[in-house]
Specification:
Blueprint (H helix, E strand, L loop, with lengths): L1 E4 L12 E3 L2 H8 L5 E3 L2 H34 L2 E5 L1 E2 L3 E6 L1 H8 L6 E2 L4 E3 L1 E10 L2 E11 L6
Parallel strand pairs: 4-10
Antiparallel strand pairs: 1-2, 1-3, 5-6, 6-8, 7-9, 9-10
Length: 147
């Protein structure tokens, strides 16, 4: 008996897949729990159309993430901070500050250790869906204001 899964079922398949199962398994387990329905030709066509739309949408999102990754990688950011003795940072630069500059969430940034010195630092950015890129952060001295 051909069925369409309405929810993911362990050891059977993912949501939206068409599977062949025994009638008793469908009638006694899958159908009463709302996990599957009978696969008619119309239903199978609907599922195929939905899957194509979903794949196109995912491909478009992946292309947008790729563009964003290229933009982040090619444009290093500069951060002005107060320095002590010309090289050490007064405090440290945290992921939150860098995330605000990039317009990202703090969770998306991975900094190996707190940034406590001026110069160039590489930070890994996780954009989601397996897309990662490196961003160069250049730490420079904040100029003193003249009064």
């Amino acid at each position: 008996m051909k069925i369409i899964l309405l929810e993911s079922v362990e050891k059977l398949g993912e949501k939206g897949e068409v599977r062949e199962v025994k009638k008793g398994y469908f009638r006694n387990f899958l159908f009463p729990r709302g996990l599957a329905k009978i696969a008619t030709n119309d239903e199978i066509l609907k599922i195929e159309v939905e899957m194509k739309k979903k794949q196109e949408k995912e491909a478009q999102e992946l292309a947008e993430l790729q563009k964003k990754a290229e933009k982040l990688k090619s444009n290093p950011i500069t951060l002005e901070v107060r320095l002590i003795a010309g090289r050490k940072i007064f405090g440290s630069v945290k992921a939150k500050e860098i995330a605000e500059l990039l317009g990202l969430k703090t969770k998306q940034l991975k900094i190996a250790k707190p940034i406590k010195e001026a110069g160039e630092h590489k930070i890994i950015v996780n954009l989601g869906k397996g897309m990662k890129t490196e961003v160069v952060v250049n730490i420079i001295s904040k100029k003193k204001r003249k009064k």
